[in-house]
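Protocol step 4 of 6: record predicted structures for both targets in the notebook before any analysis. Target 1:
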Amino acid sequence: MTRRSLPLSQVYRLLEPGPVVLVTTAGPERPDVMAMSWHNMMEFEPPLVGCVISGRNLTFDLLQAAGECVIHIPGGALARQVVKAWVRPSRRPPQTLHHRGRGSFMVAGEVIRLRSGKK
């Protein structure tokens, strides 16, 4: 098996598996939408999402004031749009857009099922 060295500055590209999502919040003057790719499922039922939103970002202030937000999961077709979003319920699985760093994205969507040890 041949291997090559990977610069440490690129390791995060291998570890960031989550799709780009749109976090929406609302303030007294206008709604706010922020693209985010630093998030993780913390619990499955009920769903609990952990995310990183910089304190230097307007979204942080609005989220802190409102105490709630909405997380939208855009599909790959919106990569060059992010104006409106729709879901086609008949399309399974969705093709999600994943940020790989430095302007690089990946479209995912293949689902594989493996037998788990749980019954």
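Target 2:
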Amino acid sequence: MTHADKVEEYELRKEGCRGVRVRYLLHAGVGAKRIQLRLFTIDVGGYTPWEKHAHEHEIFVLRGKALVKGEDREYEVGPGSVIFIGSWEHHQIVNIGDEPVQLLCTKETSELPEPLRKAALSPHD
């Protein structure tokens, strides 16, 4: 057990992404064998990359106002909104409000998050 504020936050460094940070709350490194639970913060004017991939997402918006873009639809979401993004569905989340967007997002994977894998491979002092 820990608190989200004690989990290290990483800047999401992907092409087509701006002003997004993530905390990997639950993952393989803490015993979650199938699911990652992540806390994303999208700054005012920020957005996630336009992407698609094999894993699906289940998202719960905690705060802020965002536009969720898909291949053939867009919709505005806010606190309490629940979003499902299916496998191979193009998607992007854009902060359209005047405060940061915070959302919880799952990812089905048994792997460690990439920043934690890199840290495990780098030499320690």
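Step 5 preliminary note on target 2. DSSP finds one helix and nine strands in the chain. The mean pLDDT is 93.
Proceed to step 6 after PI sign-off.
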